Structure formats: C-alpha cells, structure tokens
Amino acid sequence: MTEQNQKQLGKTLWAIADQLRGSMDADDFRDYMLSFLFLRYLSDNYEAAAQKELGSDYPDIADDVLQKINASTPLQVWYEENSKDILTFERQMRRKVHYVIEPQHLWSNIANMARMQDGELLNTLQAGFKYIENESFESTFAGLFSEIDLGSSKLGKGYSERNAVLCTVIQKIAEGLADFSTDIDALGDAYEYLIGQFAAGSGKKAGEFYTPQQISDILSTIVTLDSQEPKTGHKQRLESVMDFACGSGSLLLNVRKRMGPHGIGKIYGQEKNITTYNLARMNMLLHGVKDTEFEIFHGDTLTNEWDKLRELNPAKKPSFDAIVANPPFSLRWDASEAMADDVRFKNHGLAPKSAADFAFLLHGFHFLKEEGVMAIILPHGVLFRGGAEERIRTKLLKDGHIDTVIGLPSNLFYSTGIPVCILVLKKCKKPDDVLFINAADHFDKGKRQNQLSEAHIAKIIKTYQFREEEARYSRRVEMAEIEKNDFNLNISRYISTAVADAEIDLSVTHQQLVSIEEDIKASKDKHNAFLKELGLELLP
Hints:
Layout: H1 3-20, H2 26-54, H3 63-68, H4 74-81, H5 86-96, H6 107-115, H7 121-134, H8 138-141, H9 159-178, H10 184-202, H11 213-224, E1 238-243, H12 250-259, E2 264-271, H13 274-286, E3 294-298, E4 320-325, H14 357-366, E5 368-379, H15 388-398, E6 402-407, E7 420-425, E8 433-438, H16 454-466, E9 474-478, H17 479-484, H18 506-533
Parallel strand pairs: 1-2, 1-4, 2-3, 4-5, 6-8
Antiparallel strand pairs: 5-7, 6-7, 8-9
C-alpha cells in the first residue's frame, strides 16, 4: 500500500469515528474503535498463519459458497469437519503465533454479524475478547481487553441498544477497511493516526498517552545516532531501548522505525495507566513487533514496581542503549525519606514533592548504559529552578552528564501550552561543554497547536549531530561559564535572541535629508505658481 493510501485509510477511519461517536467521550470511543481495529489485525494474521499451518487441508471455499453453507470463514468449515484435531491445531498455533482465536470470534464473522444486525454480536464479541486473553501467551495477552466494557451504559441503556450501537460501529469500520489493502504496516499506521487524532480531541488528557510525532522524530533520531561521535551517523544496532513512561508506545516505535525491524534486540516500556498500557501492547503487535521482541510493564515508575529493575546486584542490573521519555510534567509525588536511600536517587538527591521531573530523569539515567544516550522531554523549569532541583542539576553538570539542552516552541503539545525542552544525557561524553539549541522561535503557527516543519526538525538534528554554532540559535558553552552562572541552564543566559540595531551612516542620512528638502522646495514653488495664477495667497 502506498503512503498516500495509508494516510487515506487513517482519514477514512477517523471520519467514521467522528461521525459515530456522537456525545460519547473521545477517550471512551477511542478504546472501542482501536480494539476493533486490533481484532481485525489479529484475525488477518491468525487466518494467514492457520492457512500456512494446515496447508492443503485448509478449505478453499469461495465467499458465496460460505454464505450458502452458513459459514463465516474457511477456518470454521475446517473446525466443523475436524473436531478431533482442534486441540492439536490450537496447541500449534499457540506455539507459533502465541494466541488463539476461534472461528466465531474472527473479524470476518464479527463484521458479518454486524452487517446482519445480529442480536448476539455483543455476547460473541465479549466471549472472543476473553478467549483471546485466556487461551494465549499470558505475558502478552493477559488483560489486553480488560478496559473494553461492552456492557457500559455509554453504549446504550440496555443490551439491545448497546448491541445495535456496536453493530453500526463495526459495520462502518468494516466498510471503511474494505476499500483498502490492509497489510500490517497499513493497519499500524492507521492505528497511530487515530491515536493522534483522538489525542487532539482529548486536549489536556492527551499528554497521558501521546507524544506529537514531530517531537518524537527529534528524540528518536538523537538516540539512534552514535553516542560518542554523532557526526558519524546512525548506530548499526541497539541491543535495547527503553521508555519508562511509554504511553501508547509511539516513541518506542519511532526508534524502531529508524533502526529497522531487525535493528533492536528488544524494546522495553513501562506505563502506569492500565488503558494506555493496553494501547501500547496493541500498538506494538499492530506494527509487526513480535511478542518476544518487546516487554511492556504495567506499574508505577517512580516507586519502581517492575521487579526487573529492582535488581540489587550491580553486575545484574539491567541497562539500556537508548532511553527516550516524555513523562508527566511537574507531577506531585511521594518523595519520602525512604526514597532518599533509593539507589536511583541517593547520589544526586530527591526531586521536590511538588515536581517529579528530576525523579523521572534520574530513574532513566540510572538504567542507561555507559555508552548509551538518553533524550527526555521536560518543562523549562528544570533548567533554572532552585532548591533540590538546583543541587541535582549541579551534580549532573559537574559529572559531565548533560550533553545538550534544546529549547522548543510553546504550544506544541495537546496537554499543555508551556514551552518545553529536551535534555540529552550521556554517562560518557567526549565534549567538555554543553550544547545549547534555542529553537523556541522556529515553528509554524497553527490554529490549536504550533507545528515543527521537516525543515525545523532537520535543523535541530543537524545542529546536534555536528555540534554546530549559529548566532541566536546554538552555542557550545564551556563548564566554566556555566559555573559562573551558578549552574543555571536557562537558555537565554547563553544565547541572545536580540537583534542588534542597524548602524546609521550619518553622511548618507544627511544626503537623504538634503534631497528631501530640495523636493519640498520644488513642490512648494510649483504649487505657489498655481496659486499666483488664481490670485490666491501664496504659501510662505
């Protein structure tokens, strides 16, 4: 499918969502629609794998024949004719594709039931979601549809009304998909497009699950460049990449897109919100990431609930080549005395209770490999706020861990209008300076959000990659100067955006004034000549 068709598929599905959701909250409708799109993907993938597994035994039956024999799919025909072999077949499918879908739960049957306004659609769909969760690999599919409440009053007052709404929604989605060749990439891109569109409609709540693509492009490019010599280009391979506040997983997938499908050993993510956690897992699978190639944990990052990251033996501590993150801005957190002894924080100190920004940063930095790169989005306040944050910032600077500070324009996010920055951190960095990039005034004005064009993004990346300096845009600052500024990283202290007044050449100005005086005299003389002919009083 061409890129244009992929975009059109996303727009078609969004138009359906916009038309059908009515008064339903955008977040609620998002969860239903994306789950149905995911079921379509799982079904297509499963049927293709079943056909490969069964080979010549897979029934070759035309659609019109299937209708005559009242079967929804060829797989249903095989199930009815080979009941004794079903358990063995499903065991093989569970081993090879890691999940199982019974024929009545496949998308083609669900879509057909919707088209026929079948009264059992809701029950069948609910049973299908539970079956996929319970009969598949637990680590990947457990609770995957747990937040999809098909019995919610948001869909209707009673069963019949809810069933009718589901029939309409699924029928429209099926009709929209029918016009396109829905390969994995197309469905994945459509899923991402819908997440972005729903984020736009969610306003401030969107920050919980979505990083705008333009900012995601910057972070993902930075962490995939060589850590010590960015100018040499992209790394050939990353053994691991981590996002400890991964939302819907878009940042991680952007890194994977740049590295290629085989360029990353394993993708790791963590997400506290259960609904968003499920979105992220679906997003990974929809983009063709095998369940053995990613691990996303549901839990609190700040309290470090993931057992994998609680390893006390330094020799066994997990670490990551690349870390990207867009954590919640200035989140209040429980900075208890016990936290002060946490291995993640004890060398730098605790972030204040009123703003967990540095707590998130130190969490990620703790798990960064010695040769790794971390890029994190934070509010501007982390650059200059005093107290505990000043002490943490000073320690990071003195230890040579802050590599680059990038100031971005305001109003780029759906969740906030404040300007933000990107901090690039490294445990081992060559330059004994900090690169400041002031991109705050480089954007395209939008109706609701400002936008970074491809040229704006390319300029930021090029400046970082080659550590370029440009008046009023970027500058390399030695540590001695930063120390003189009390380790304050406010960009305006190091890059002046003021435009110097143009110098005035007095001799040129004098000639211009003489010329103007001559023009005035000539005009007055001409005017007085007319007045004289008319017998009127002359100008003095």
